[in-house]
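Example for tutorial group B:
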């Protein structure tokens, strides 16, 4: 809060964050993740963006290695949440070992050889999409179409915006307004694009303006339109 107010240097905050490498608590990591996400967004228009990604990899990799990919006996619900948070953070930041393992598990999941547990799906999806191409996106849209449960459809909708290439970002935004997505879930897809990358933010803002009439008429000034503007 002090750094955001300009009272202390952000460098001081980063030094404090480094002290949490041995922290086991999910709530603390969730807070660190959120604040690093805000910093990454602010730095996405500068030369320091790669540096902050490297910092994320450094801070999160020890806890990632400790937790591993598979649940251990006697683990609680918060450990599962922490694993998903940490692996997703490392994957998005381009941590090599996490990316390779996520791709391997995603391939097995798609082929039906080894279905991903529910708590690992979001981090794996977001990792492969962030560093994926058009075939990755097509596979994800196919999974969306085949999903029996709305929960799985929503999970996929929230992460589609992680894709990086401009033409694929446009494809995701077009998908957001298609009949494949329930009107109440369109906001999640557009919000995911806006939060996914610098390119996504610009594209989502342009998309909102270009389709404002349709979106406004669809939500009639309800809470979803205000959420859309906020994201």
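The residue assignment follows.
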């Amino acid at each position: 809060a002090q750094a955001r107010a300009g009272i202390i240097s952000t460098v001081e905050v980063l030094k404090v964050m480094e002290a949490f490498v041995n922290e086991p608590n999910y709530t603390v990591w969730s807070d660190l993740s959120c604040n690093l996400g805000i910093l990454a967004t602010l730095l996405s228009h500068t030369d320091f963006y790669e540096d902050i990604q490297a910092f994320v990899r450094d801070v999160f990799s020890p806890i990632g290695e400790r937790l591993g990919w598979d649940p251990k006996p006697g683990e609680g619900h918060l450990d599962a949440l922490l694993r998903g948070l940490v692996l997703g953070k490392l994957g998005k930041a381009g941590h090599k070992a996490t990316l390779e393992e996520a791709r391997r598990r995603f391939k097995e999941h798609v082929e039906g050889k080894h279905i991903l547990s529910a708590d690992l799906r979001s981090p794996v999806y977001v990792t492969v999409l962030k560093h994926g191409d058009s075939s990755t996106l097509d596979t994800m849209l196919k999974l969306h179409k085949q999903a029996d449960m709305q929960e799985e459809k929503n999970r996929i909708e929230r992460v589609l915006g992680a894709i990086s290439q401009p033409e694929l970002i446009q494809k995701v935004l077009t998908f957001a307004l298609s009949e494949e997505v329930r009107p109440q879930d369109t906001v999640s897809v557009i919000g995911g694009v806006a939060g996914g990358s610098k390119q996504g933010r610009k594209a989502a803002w342009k998309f909102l303006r270009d389709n404002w009439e349709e979106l406004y008429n669809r939500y009639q000034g309800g809470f979803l339109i205000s959420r859309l503007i906020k994201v």
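The CA atoms of residues 66 and 103 lie 20 Å apart. Compare this with the pattern of hydrophobic and polar residues in the output above.
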